[in-house]
Amino acid sequence: MSTIVPATIDFDGVTGLLKGPGVLQQFRTLSDLVGVFEDEAARSSMDPATPAYSVRTLLPVPEGKEGGLFFGCTYLQPGLVGDEYFMTKGHFHSNRDTAEFYWGIEGEGVLLLMAEDRTIRAEQIRKGSLHYIPGWTAHRMVNTGDTVLTFGACWPSDAGHDYETIRREGFAARVKKGPDGPLVVEG
Amino acid sequence: MSTIVPATIDFDGVTGLLKGPGVLQQFRTLSDLVGVFEDEAARSSMDPATPAYSVRTLLPVPEGKEGGLFFGCTYLQPGLVGDEYFMTKGHFHSNRDTAEFYWGIEGEGVLLLMAEDRTIRAEQIRKGSLHYIPGWTAHRMVNTGDTVLTFGACWPSDAGHDYETIRREGFAARVKKGPDGPLVVEG
Q1: pLDDT given for residue A132 in this prediction
Q2: SS3 for B67?
Q3: Which of A54, B100, B130, B181 could be cross-linked to A9 through a Cys-Cys bond (beta carbons 3.0 to 4.6 Å apart)?
Q4: Angle A154-B93-A69 from CA coordinates, rounded to 5°
Q5: Under an 8 A CB cutoff, do A130 and B7 touch?
Q6: Which residue of A has its CA nearest to B111?
């Protein structure tokens, strides 16, 4: 007779809380987002310790392993730098031909997707929306709401993160607060 | 200026309902589970149209594509065949070295994991539990509760399903209703 072992990792589908042994936590403040916003003067005038987002991840296998998967949840704060909403750094996968799923848990925002030819697609993310991010596609999340935007993610363990291309070249569009809601402004 | 396109796929983290364009639905009845339960006479005496489980899947890329991902949700009915709980067929991945995540959304059950050497691990699954299924590991879900067991899943698009090995060799353990709850009985 075998025993039934309790699950050790919790993922709350309602709040998005991911916790348990091996779950890593990373915190990003505005000081980690130098050069990300158009109005760098506005960013640098704000408290650099302002929380921008945190990420909890479960990496059950080493980074780079083929055939494995990682799981995570991101908690993106609401806020503005000038007229631009708080957002994640954004990245391509280092292994370009690897995909990712995102799903909205709480809050509202815009998922910016950018192909290698810099073509932009902006998808609304909300509680209960599911998003497939194909390979060769940079992805950045933007919180356009007044509350924390929480979303889940699952991606291959050999995807890797190429933040450098986005740091150097940026995205081809920005999401700004307009008079009637968020605007995706290209260029 | 780009438009913000609404998300087209819904995944409800509370109920597990997955729907939208391209979401496939598969239904399994007891007639699809010939040879799965120890007491085949008990199974064959039951209405073959009895629903056992259904699966909703989103396959954004062709099966077999490397680097892509699939997403799904399974709704496993409660019930007994003899003293054995309703369960899924169970499978290895055809591409053995590919992993999968499962997470519990509603109900309660046991995730049976079996290595290639037939070593068994039985994990309790419940609302809010997250499970990593490593490569080389057959997986079968068992509903030990009185309500539908709903769980989400994400797996690589080149994983494939090897049901045949399990059909031929079975799992090395069965989950049965005991006097004080579920028992994992080996052999």
Answers
A1: 98
A2: coil
A3: B130
A4: 20
A5: yes
A6: A4
